[in-house]
Description:
Jelly Rolls; mainly beta
Amino acid sequence: MAPEGFTTIKIRVVAPDGTVVERCVLVADSDVLRGRGLMGVTDPTLGGIDAMVFTYDRDTTSGFWMKNTLVPLSIAFADEGGTVTSTAEMEPCPAGTDPCPVTTSPSAYRVAVEVPQGRLAALGLVPGGRIETLAGTGCTVGRN
């Protein structure tokens, strides 16, 4: 199963070495969507999208867990200016584990980006990289 019910946008990622890439991502910008995230997704390609972006109106320290998430993920946390401040690897929560481990950022963040595990560096999502939302630009899943 691929993610459904999310809008898509393009983001620009500027890696620390200056490399720039544009990617199609799903947006989780409400409590309901952020709570659902990539739960239940079984497709390790995420249905042809590059990532899921979790956005917040103000700084947060909310954690991420992998309950009902079946695909191993990597996560990047970015500050208000879009600069990636930290990253982490996340494994699915084994059935029967209660509570699931929670992954947190060492500092407050405004944006978190989840990708299939091991893909952060290829997208430039490493500490010092920068994420820019391209306002008003949608994208078609599988056609970045």
